[in-house]
Amino acid sequence: MRPAASRAAPWLWLAAAARVASPFSTRAMYAELDRSLERYAAVESADAAFAYLKDLIERPEHSYHNTLFVLDGVVYCDRRFLATDKNNKHVAMVGSLAALGVDPPNVVYRFIYGAEGYNKGDALARHPVLVIAKYDGYGDAGVLAPNPYFLDLRAWDEERRRILAKAHARPYGGRDGRVFWRGEIASHDSDVETRADHGTAAERAAFFCAEEGGNYARLQAASLTLAAPAKVDVRCVSRHSCRPRDAARHPCAAYPYDGDMARAANRPKDLVDRGGFVDLPEYTRYQKVLNLPGKTTGSYSRNLNHLWALGAVVLLWEANYVEWYYPLLAHGETHLAVNKSSLLAALDAIDALPDANRTALRVRAKEIDDRVVSGKGIAAYFGALFDRLRARFSLGAVLDDPCARARLFRAANCSALDLVAVAPAAESFFKSWPGGPGHMRRLDAARVPAAPTDCNAIYKRARDACAAAGRGDP
Ligand SMILES: *[C@@H]1O[C@H](CO)[C@@H](O)[C@H](O)[C@H]1NC(C)=O
Ligand SMILES: *[C@@H]1O[C@H](CO)[C@@H](O)[C@H](O)[C@H]1NC(C)=O
Ligand SMILES: *[C@@H]1O[C@H](CO)[C@@H](O)[C@H](O)[C@H]1NC(C)=O
């Protein structure tokens, strides 16, 4: 008989057979979170917190309007913030925390959706920015938060359940032995030719060449599909999504093509999977899955979000960018780090491992899914992140006290803000997961329901709560 735990987490039985070196711990992830906050001066009194919050409300960074308030479980932000799809997804995620058992505390923070993180120096250095990736590693500014592609965490868990069911039904030995990836290779060729907003032709060429890292990595990996088809199945999902850079017209000294790559770039249609988009649970047909850097800037890719759940061996293409849980990752334990020259040998090495060692890799990957990237894991991280922001900047002293909150929203000049309120929804706003490009578009078009409001409305509610508590007029 299997241990009782197998019902709750069917993959745990694997662990018994595996040689997992040490118990799973999230300590390193939270240590990095603490470290990243240390660069911002601590705020230690209620008066100082009042000034800190007033400044944050009055100086939303103009290009982003990126300040969010979470008050009594409702998310407030600028309407223009929600115009960006990824911001919508972030708000949906925060709005679903309570449904996952983590009531978000009162907090005010800034959020930037860009995959490159935040490298603009210290213009607003008092107020940390939540970023979803750090392009150059942990030294970059900002505080790491999960990327928006988990959407509403209830929808994410529903999708994970579909993946886990398939993973369980497909034992490793019966799977396709090749390493798998599907996606887009989207060169910046047309940007170089048309984006007048990026300066002269020479400036554009330099700018977009610097952004080619992700497409370069993708072409490197896909070129091995042509060179070693028995081991590598790395392809684009359509002809339209397979447009490698034309190296003759747009050379990039930093990203030279080798022979494999030049051949692949000349025959992009050979890189196309005619089956088209692959539904996420179907990634469980493979023993080994690969993550490649994002196509736009070569930073994180949303593809990785679901790879940990597959019961496969995970391979990560070497790069400097980091996400919030990367402090928990280790080459040879949770995944294998690969590049163009090491990929084929790594695949052979995986096949040559004793069963127990290979199983250990899969178990460690599955732990990342179960403890960190699951709905519960993400909700726990947001809870801890918000608690730390509150502690570092004494936010509770103002936001949790209705009288102090009323004083703040009466004093703050909100005239630059076009505020809306997003109340937590009883059900996930994102109903179906991408089963194909059509679904993907519908999902991307989804918008959280936002009601117009303003600082005065927040002030009045807090004032009434202050009076109801018998503390008079704030
Ligand atoms: C590729 O990975 C191998 C093994 O980790 C390493 O020795 C090599 O330096 C890497 N190559 C490049 C170009 O980074
Ligand atoms: C398999 O795992 C054991 C225990 O961690 C380790 O000592 C051994 O070196 C591993 N073997 C290989 C081939 O990696
Ligand atoms: C409020 O801020 C706006 C700019 O956002 C400014 O034009 C206006 O003068 C400010 N009002 C007061 C009373 O300070």
Radius of gyration: 24 Å
Mean pLDDT: 89
Share of helix, binned: 40-55%
Strand content: 5-15%
Question: Could you describe the 3D structure shown?
Answer:
Residues 1-23 form the signal peptide. This is Glycosyl transferase CAP10 domain-containing protein. Keywords: Signal. Strands 5-4-3-1-2-13-14 form a seven-stranded mixed beta sheet, sandwiched between helices. Strands 8-6-10-11-12 form a five-stranded parallel beta sheet. It has a two-stranded parallel sheet with strand order 7-9. The chain has 474 residues and is α/β, with parallel strands linked by helices. The longest helix is centred in the C-terminal third of the chain and has 19 residues, at 355-373. The radius of gyration is 24 Å and the shape is globular. It has helices at 5-8, 12-17, 27-37, 46-58, 79-82, 85-95, 153-169, 189-194, 201-210, 213-227, 259-266, 304-307, 343-352, 355-373, 375-393, 396-399, 402-411, 437-445, 455-468, and strands spanning 67-71, 74-78, 107-112, 129-131, 143-144, 176-183, 185-186, 232-236, 242-243, 286-291, 313-317, 336-338, 419-422, 451-452. Strand 10 (286-291), helix 12 and strand 11 (313-317) form a beta-alpha-beta unit. Helix content is 41%, strand content 12%. One 2-acetamido-2-deoxy-beta-D-glucopyranose (NAG) binds at residues 413, 415-416.
Describe how the helices and strands are arranged.
Blueprint: H1 5-8, H2 12-17, H3 27-37, H4 46-58, E1 67-71, E2 74-78, H5 79-82, H6 85-95, E3 107-112, E4 129-131, E5 143-144, H7 153-169, E6 176-183, E7 185-186, H8 189-194, H9 201-210, H10 213-227, E8 232-236, E9 242-243, H11 259-266, E10 286-291, H12 304-307, E11 313-317, E12 336-338, H13 343-352, H14 355-373, H15 375-393, H16 396-399, H17 402-411, E13 419-422, H18 437-445, E14 451-452, H19 455-468
Parallel strand pairs: 3-4, 4-5, 6-8, 6-10, 7-9, 10-11, 11-12
Antiparallel strand pairs: 1-2, 1-3, 2-13, 13-14
Helix pairs in contact: 3-15, 7-15, 10-11, 14-15, 17-19
The structure holds 2-acetamido-2-deoxy-beta-D-glucopyranose (NAG) (3 copies).
